[in-house]
Amino acid sequence: MSLPPLSLELPPLALYVHVPWCIRKCPYCDFNSHQASNDIPEADYVNALRLDLQQDQVLAQGRKLTSIFFGGGTPSMLSAQAIGQILKDAEAIIGFEPDIEITLEANPGTFEQEKFSGFRAAGVNRLSIGIQSFNDRQLTLLGRVHGRDEALRAVGVARSAGFNNINLDLMHGLPEQSVAAATADLQQAIDLAPEHLSWYQLTIEQNTAFYSAPPVLPEEDILADIQDAGIELLAAAGYEQYEISAYARDKKRARHNLNYWEFGDYLGIGAGAHGKITLPAEDKILRLWKTRLPKHYLDAANSQKISTNLGGHQNTFGGGSDLLLPAGLPLEFMMNALRLTAGVPQRFFTARTGLDWQAVATPWQQLTQQGLVEIVQGTVRPTALGRRFLNRVLQGFMPLEP
């Protein structure tokens, strides 16, 4: 079946800033992170980020930023002064919406009261703290550099620094973990009363230490029991599940992540950072990425000799780009939108892919008949059954082989 021509609208714009260094590489981590052997080149990296963003400025197409997310690695290894300078540069180069959300990922092993007060003063208004577990044995198995006491202290430091929007990252399905142990971990997180909880299952990814030497993980029936017990516990505590692994109270949903799931646009700066940009004038949607190794990224900033054509856009930080073709856009859109419990407005499909709904009408009808998806008051969303079998749902939108 031939698909209708593209007719795109500009979605909201966010910014992702990648900080590639960490204190120690965790055995489950497949992100672009590199163990810092000595002092990180903070000033040089901040300068490189500025140059990177200046070159991507044209891709904003007049939009201001609705959110910024500092990810890694461990962004909290940077000084408050460095974070403040990056934010000043971003505001000067792109501009901020008045209610911008600015999130910084932080690990408990890097918490100092003065430093985090500095992050808050610099403009960071949301913290995402990588707890993963409150069990010391599990933290050791996961290769974390903090223990239970440091995890508990980190939340107190964040509150004292003035943060009233905190996310805690917590894993379940850990090595040999029982239902009781997983729910005890989750209850401890709930007791700390964060505004947001990211509660997700440990998975073994390629190119990780765990992939080479996998630990013994709980069996499928135990994993299912953990999931059911955890969702019940979170609901009883007033946390709304609005995405597969995201839970919020007081409407404090992660605006930056919502932009991803609603198929919005985002610039990505830093070593290995990825972006997605809509170009309505050219009927294009691009995925962009920067060179991965910190040394190569910094060398590019110093030499200005590396040049990559990103869909007609020049950037000296290497990497590359992919054009999202119409045949693959239904899957690209649905694999994000259907992560959301409430789904997204049906009109987003056309506005953000440029495709008429007819491009997905047949698989949508089939999945509806199977009780996996639904349209309610103009919103497309998965059913409870569809959320449980999301991979099966997404198979319905796979592009046909040529």
Tally of helical segments? 15
* Beta strands, count: 19
Rg over CA atoms, rounded to whole Å, is: 21 Å
What helical percentage do the residues reach? 25-40%
Sheet with most strands = 9 strands, mixed
Structural class: alpha/beta
Question: Quaternary state, please?
Answer: single chain
Terminal Cα separation, in Å?
Answer: 11 Å
- The amount of beta strand, in percent, is 15-25%
Unreliable runs? 305-309
The average pLDDT is: 91
Shape descriptor: globular
Widest sheet: strand order? 9-10-8-7-6-5-4-1-11
Characterization of the model:
By secondary structure, the protein is an alpha/beta fold. The strands form five sheets. A nine-stranded mixed β-sheet has the order 9-10-8-7-6-5-4-1-11, sandwiched between helices. Strands 12-13-16 form a three-stranded antiparallel β-sheet, with no helix packed on it. Helix 2 (80-93) packs parallel to helix 3 (113-122). The protein starts with 12 loop residues before the first strand and ends in a 7-residue tail after the last helix. Residues 305-309 have low confidence and may be disordered. Helices cover 37% and strands 23% of the residues. The protein has 15 helices and 19 strands.
